[in-house]
Amino acid sequence: MAANPSEKKETQFYYPSEAFVQNAAISGMNAYHALCRAAAEDYEGFWAELAQENVLWHKPFTRVLNETNPPFYKWFEDGELNVSWNCLDKNLVNGNAEKDAIIFEADDGTVTKVTYRELHRRVCKLANGLKSLGVRKGDRVVIYMAMSIEAVVAMQACARIGAIHSVVFGGFSAPSLGERIENAGAVAVITADMQIRGGRRLPLKAIVDDALAMSESHTVKNVIVYQRTDEEIPFDKGRDHWMHELMQSQSEICQPEWVNAEHPLFILYTSGSTGNPKGAQHSSGGYLLWAIMTMRWTFDIKPTDIFWCTADIGWITGHTYNAYGPLAVGATIVLFEGVPTYPHAGRFWEMIEKHKVSIFYTAPTAVRSLIKASSENRQFAPEQYDLSSLRLLGSVGEPINPEAWLWFYKHIGKERCPIVDTFWQTETGGHVIAPMPGATPQVPGSCTLPLPGLSVSVVDETGQELPWGQGGILVINRPWPSMIRTVWGNDERYKTHYWPEELGGKLYQAGDGAIRDPETGYFTITGRIDDVLNVSGHALGTMEVESVLAAHPMVAEAAVVGKPDDLTGESICAFVILKDELPQGDQAKSIASDLRKWVSKEISPIARPKEIRFGENLPKTRSGKIMRRLLRVIARGEEITQDISTLENPAILDQLRNSL
Ligand code: WTA
Questions:
Q1: Helices and strands counted in the chain (H then E)
Q2: Taking a C-beta distance cutoff of 8 angstroms, is the pair 549, 555 a contact?
Q3: Pocket test for ligand 1, best of 320, 362, 396, 398 (most atoms within 8 A of CB)
Q4: Has the ipTM of the complex gone over 0.85?
Q5: Nearest partner of 272 among 144, 362, 179, 210, judged by Cα
Q6: Shortest-distance Cα residue to atom 15 of ligand 1
Q7: Residue 569 scores a pLDDT above 60
């Protein structure tokens, strides 16, 4: 699919240091291969052992995998547990009670810490508060909050009583929130009066009010409001409750509700970059198991680590690697309310120094924007800060282009810290393809190899496995514990979307294209399948072209979309952000011409963008994903009629539209 006509260059590997390997949970490739072999030889036995050793069960399971009704697989189905009990109570008896669970840094720099004991106390109080309002096991609770200790408390409190939470990212508009509340049939909403980002106060509760006013089914009976500011907000006395008032008189003890391993822990609507939102439903047992295993395997988590995942709790990364995984292994996490560029572009580096962060997990988009910021203003460059506490870096959410990888490696990790480029999705619950940092040699731009237990292949349109070196569709061959269970309320959509008939109905289709290196078998994600371009009969992954553009010394970031073309079928339109100022007139023309030559040279003349537009930024969702569908519309010169409520920076659309 994603043919790369350029000559194959010698693969350059980046190895973890001897010291890292020695202290790692999984040391060396032999250990990795041994785990893969164990899974291949006895798949159920492999998972059963991990689940027995790493998860606390109230009632042990006797059945591992139930495959009788594909693709509705069940894991550990007769086991009983509680996820909050695994994350909190366990840490009260193993010496972690006085350890910091969360270090919270507010937008204005104020730091608040809570120990495991205190977190447990708050979760129990809120859980009892929810029960006092009549919220019961199986009820849905929508959480519409910004990054805060209270947001984690809210998620954990739901888990404690067996209520199914659905966190909606605090940047969604009232109609989007309302749609999710309706779809989930929520009985309660937990929100905050306001959120504070980049020095600005933005409403949350008012948006909940609007969303509920639009509701037709009126399922929501209670709204619980965390008071973040002193702002006056409208309050409906019959429906709304301040969180602190609700918790005040509640007991500090709340017996966890024992749930079946298959009981839904949460629903998370997948980001609306394509189509209507789908509520990905996750389980309790299998999901928790993989959150724990990936903390150990991908992040090599140690009791002394300070773990900072910058993802918002509104996204899957914030669920698995803020709210659940790290707590279930007794780690200390940093939670950040603000944005990377406020009050200055050195904020991330300053926070790493201040909190002595040892594992830093972020998105390529953030890395690229900070590359640009630090080249513009050396004062906020990473070199100005002490980053010596770091030992491991991670990347998530989109392919990281080799240029950004190398910058991250050199300037942040000081060539000392391995980088785990983690490929996964909302639907997979946790990492799928990622290096094990003490084992897997890394290659910039490749997420390397599947984690043990995950059987991943690249297939053609009929589901036939393709040889290494040939691009195709990424699939997962066998059910795995942390997989999506269904699309909430829509089994049919789950079945047809993720288990397509064309591929035989037994392969989970991730929705991404991938290619394996012909020699190493390493995976490179070539972008969403719908992002593949066809120019003169040649298929090109948008990522390939973007990556090459981004490797040009003048370029900070680039996005590429296809545009119908009479001659070539599709032509390439590139949106380019330079490290320097926005170029004008002849200067823009000359840079565009240089960039075309560059792409021609690096990939092939076929990949040369027909059109290049310069802007100061790209349209992105609030989770940092480039909204290619909007770029496609701009490239075609059409009117934007789509929903842009998830767009972080709407003003950029006009600039790009007028950039020709
Ligand atoms: C993309 C985020 C390349 C991919 C965890 C996937 C990646 C989608 C990577 C899921 C990566 C995520 N390399 N692409 N390391 N990580 N993706 O559901 O296209 O928000 O299908 O989950 O992001 O996005 P989602």
A1: 21, 30
A2: yes
A3: 398
A4: yes
A5: 179
A6: 423
A7: yes
Residue 243 DSSP SS3: helix
Annotated binding site for Mg(2+): 552, 555
Burial class (CB in 10 A: 0-12, 13-18, 19+), 530: middle
Nearest ligand 1 atom to alpha carbon 525: 3
Q: Identify whether 518 is preceded by a cis peptide bond (ω within 30 of 0).
A: no
DSSP per-residue string spanning 245-259: HHHHTS-S--PPPPE
Give residue 521's Cα distance to chain centre: 25
Q: How far is CA 217 from the centre of its chain?
A: 31
Distance CA 18, CA 20 (A): 5
Question: CA 440 to CA 449: how far, in whole Å?
Answer: 8
Q: Which atom of ligand 1 is nearest to the CA of 447?
A: 15
The one-letter amino acid code at 415 reads E
Identify the residue whose C-alpha is closest to ligand 1 atom 1.
398
pLDDT at 3: 40
| Gap from CA of 528 to ligand 1 centroid (Å) | 9
What is d(CA 599, CA 595) in angstroms, rounded to the nearest whole number? Answer: 6
Contact between residue 374 and residue 345 where contact means Cβ atoms under 8 Å apart: yes
- Per-residue pLDDT tens digits for 83-133: 999 999 999 999 999 999 999 999 999 999 999 999 999 999 999 999 999
Binding residues: 197-200, 317, 397-399, 421-426, 512, 528, 536, 552, 555
- Return d(Cα 528, Cα 530) in angstroms, integer: 5
> DSSP label at 436?
-
**Per-residue b/e over 264-289, b at no fewer than 16 CB within 10 Å?**
bbbbbbbbbbeeebbbbbbbbbbbbb
Crossing angle of helices 205-214 and 174-184, in 10° steps, is 60
Q: Which of 408, 512, 546 to mutate to test the pocket of ligand 1 (most atoms within 8 A of CB)?
A: 512
Query: CA-to-CA distance for 623 and 167, rounded, in angstroms?
Result: 14
Beta strand spans in 397-461 (E): 419-422, 456-459
In whole angstroms, what is the distance from residue 209 CA to residue 331 CA?
36
pLDDT score for 440? 98
Helix (H, G, I), strand (E, B), or coil: what is residue 373?
A: helix
Peptide bond into 441 cis (omega under 30): no
pLDDT over threshold 70, residue 275:
no
The structure's pTM equals: 0.86
Bridge partners for 476 per DSSP = 456, 508
Task: Report the amino acid identity of residue 216.
Answer: E
Mutation test of ligand 1: which of 525, 526, 528, 622 has the most ligand atoms closer than 8 Å to its C-beta? 525
Where do runs of H (alpha helix) occur along 42-173? 43-54, 83-84, 90-93, 116-132, 149-161
Is 492 exposed, middle or buried (CB count within 10 Å of its CB: 0-12, 13-18, 19+)?
exposed
Query: Dihedrals φ, ψ of 588, to 5°?
Result: -60, -40
Ligand 1: lining residues by beta carbon, under 6 Å: 270-271, 315-317, 395-399, 421-426, 447, 510-512, 525, 528
**Residues 35-45, mean pLDDT to the nearest whole number:** 98
Tell me, in angstroms, the distance from the centre of ligand 1 to residue 536's CA.
28
Distance CA 536, CA 115 (A): 60
Q: Is 68 helix (H, G, I), strand (E, B) or coil?
A: coil
